[in-house]
Specification:
263 residues, alpha/beta, Dihydrofolate Reductase, subunit A, ten-stranded mixed β-sheet, two-stranded antiparallel ribbon, 12 strands
């Protein structure tokens, strides 16, 4: 047995941008649903990065970096391809995301914070003054935080949350047709539960965490025939992550999977 020589340690730290060299056909296949989004209603796409065992963070909340550089590049390309990117108040509190386009050429989308109870403060990066629209969606009438351009007040449901269908429609009425729901897991799950999501991009990393926060938490089912089985295309990335592009509008409960693996 010969020992390996000069093998670099495995790391998930993000590399410089530009790691994915999409050809035109590949780009069109992955982002075609956004290009072809209907003009008469909101089109919602979700993005979720997780481990092989479906975790998005450890039990202490550590999540940087489960996915690698290619997944980050992909996320920024998604941001550049939509009109608005939406995250919940929990994600803002935990991660303070910038929600802009940095790893690929493109325009910053409008940044939308979903904050039914006024949890987010004013000193957060999504409110950066860089020319992008900044929109707060809340259930509590309140003054807009500094640098926030618009406040949308929407009624709560019986469970205290704001209906995702109402959220998507309000953003569509504000001129934002293509909407990326980027986080967190609770917000993405609520859109799927409500039938308000058209597409879901799940980026799976070759990492097993074994405990911690689950990526999706949907309404419980008792029989597998009620499970969601959306047609999916699979795209392996050079650094080991795999993209599952799931068409939730074409979901079937037939018990048969429709998978297409693209090298």
């Amino acid at each position: 047995m010969v020992a390996a020589q000069n093998v670099p340690p495995f790391t998930r730290d993000p590399a410089p941008a530009g790691e994915i060299a999409y050809g035109e056909d590949t780009y069109a296949a992955i982002f075609g649903s956004l290009r072809q989004a209907p003009a008469d209603r909101p089109f919602v796409i979700g993005q979720l990065g997780q481990s092989l065992d479906g975790r998005i963070a450890t039990r202490t909340g550590d999540s940087r970096y489960i996915n690698g550089a290619c997944a980050l590049d992909h996320l920024h390309r998604l941001r550049a391809a939509v009109d608005a990117v939406l995250v919940g108040a929990g994600t803002i509190a935990a991660d303070d995301p910038q929600l802009n386009v940095r790893r690929t050429p493109g325009k910053n989308p409008a940044r939308v914070a979903l904050d039914p109870s006024g949890r987010t403060g004013a000193q957060v990066r999504w409110l950066a003054n860089d020319g992008a629209r900044r929109i707060l969606i809340t259930a509590e009438p309140q003054a807009a935080p500094p640098n926030c351009d618009e406040v949308i007040v929407a009624p709560r449901r019986a469970d205290g949350a704001i209906c995702p269908i109402s959220i998507a429609q309000a953003l569509f009425d504000a001129g934002l047709r293509r909407i990326l729901v980027e986080g967190g897991a609770r917000t993405i799950s609520s859109f799927i539960n409500a039938g308000a999501m058209d597409r879901l991009h799940v980026l799976v990393a070759p990492v097993i965490i074994g405990s911690g926060k689950q990526g999706l938490d949907l309404a419980p089912i008792d029989e597998l025939r009620h499970a969601l089985r959306p047609p999916a295309r699979i795209w392996p990335f050079p650094d080991g992550d795999v993209l599952f592009d799931c068409d939730l509008r074409a979901n079937t409960n037939s018990g048969e999977y429709e998978l297409e693996v693209t090298p």
